[in-house]
Amino acid sequence: MLSKYTRLLYRAVEWLYDWSNVYFIARYRHVFGNLPPCHKGTTLEVGCGDSLLWTSRLAARSRLLIAMDLAGDRARNAKQLASRPHSQLQNVAWVVADVVAMPFRSGCLEAVTCIDVIEHIPDHHTAMSEIARVITDCGKAVVTTMHENRPHYLYPVVFADHVREYTPESLEQLCHEGRMRVVKHFSFYKPLTMVMRELQGVIPRFKLPLVTLLVRLPVALLAYVGEIDARPGGGIGVVIEPC
User: Which CATH architecture has domain 4-242?
Assistant: First the structure.
């Protein structure tokens, strides 16, 4: 049994690791600034992956969080992380399912996040229609992805596993065809942040995790400052609601 202070120490270290992640820094303000807390409702995280980067924070803002991933091993790994003594996420239901055929009744969710997932889905039209089906009339969803025409500075960032990429116009068109209305556009990975994203991609992982953390933190701080820039960025997103 971990003591109270040991749990706090573990959480503080994990918090620092999260905030040393340029990927997280670029998106967090848009995700949590545009998604209302669901303390009396249910949130769905599409593509939860095998970490708690978004899951732990979404769970803290929801009565119930459904963390869903198509890959069973990734969902199981995340569930194991959540069961650690210093994590103890009690209000998370882990579901292995495909976003194009979700096992939920219509209109049962108050909020949905789809963070850098839509570009991996072959049938993205059905995926968007499914999000529209399961969300309540007053619900909101946040979708993020990379811009098809994003700039590069140090080297091109190429994602071989992307089925397609989007422009703000094509992403809005997808939402419209899926019976979702765009209420807000936003962009992230502003120029300085994009440089830090590329730089972080070549930072080696040292044998001592603390050394890796200390090297990543200055890069993350510059990425945080970079997101203040009003210019368009290399990532795009939308806040959507049912039509």
Answer: 3-Layer(aba) Sandwich (3.40)
